[in-house]
Write a structure and sequence with these properties.
ATP hydrolysis activity, 5-stranded antiparallel β-sheet, OB fold (Dihydrolipoamide Acetyltransferase, E2P), 353 residues, nucleotide-binding, ATP-binding, alpha+beta, binds adenosine-5'-triphosphate, Rossmann fold, Carbohydrate ABC transporter ATP-binding protein, CUT1 family, 24% helix
Amino acid sequence: MITISNLTKSFGTFDAVKSVDIEVPQGAFLVLVGPSGCGKSTMLRMLAGLETPTAGTISFAGNTVSDGDRGWTIEPAERNTGLVFQSYALWPHMTVSGNVEWPLKVGKMPAAERKTRVAEVLKLLGIEKLAARYPNEISGGQQQRVAIARMIAPRPGILLFDEPLSNLDAKLRVEMRTELLRVHRATGATSIYVTHDQVEAMTMASHVAVLKDGEVEQFGTPQDLVAEPRTAFVATFVGTPPANLIPVAPQGVATTFDGNVLPINLNLSGPAQAMYRPETLGVSAEPTPKSLALEFAEASPVAGRIMITGTKGDMRLTAVVDSAPKFTPGDTVHFTVPETPDALFAPNGERMP
Ligand SMILES: Nc1ncnc2c1ncn2[C@@H]1O[C@H](COP(=O)(O)OP(=O)(O)OP(=O)(O)O)[C@@H](O)[C@H]1O
């Protein structure tokens, strides 16, 4: 179990991470996700012991490893964590097996044991044939495997990943996701993984923490976040594709949806944001009494269905439907809105009861 309590990191007067409280169960795969600059890497660096928190504590299995209130942190090498970055940072003058063996040498493991362990992890990552090559003689994907092998060789109890797949092409990323999860399970370690790719987050995670401006907007399983987003930000950040938000306001017994009056009564007392999942919206070429006209933007096939996106000003709606008329860019597409939204959020983004 990793316990993060009131964790804060300030750079001068700027708080990059603010009062974060999270408990990560043993063996979990926690993904930290959020837009650029929200504090993901800073969180991971504190977990790795590369930064001392300004306030709050981190403990691993009940032992405090960083204490911002006292201003100390246990050194990276002493805290049973392994870290892999986006850039693989392999030692160019060492072979693949030399790279993987290095942390074991530093850890003073006897030579015979090192040899067995290196062979074991190279096999686990499927790179045993590359053992004698140098980093410049293998591909980017293979280099990333070597970096992961090097990280897990000393058997750390906690694996930390900072956007490890972002340098790889799309196909390799998908393959490596599966591979990483296999390694995670094989080691039995608790993993914490930073990404700004929500698809990666939702497919890999046992737990997700959505960060915004240094704070945790929501922490839970991927299913929890999609089913019950606590804020409008989370609603538009998770799910494939993410949920739609439409600005709404009461108009007698009707409601204005982004300025258009529709005969739907949402019983509102003031302005709000209505959330509709893409599969609840319909599309048609002709208007209906409960539809909104947007400009067609794109259509793409998803798992045997069709995803249609339209835009109007700042609003972007996505519907996932079984079939749709053929639209071309510039056409008007009418999105039909169901009577009941999937959720309502106040203008400040908080979920309404
Ligand atoms: N050493 C530093 N000094 C001052 N500000 C910093 C420092 N490190 C990070 N920051 C700031 O803290 C905020 C959080 O940075 P961080 O790198 O944790 O974000 P991130 O979510 O990982 O972003 P990205 O997805 O772009 O990597 C940013 O606004 C960044 O500019």
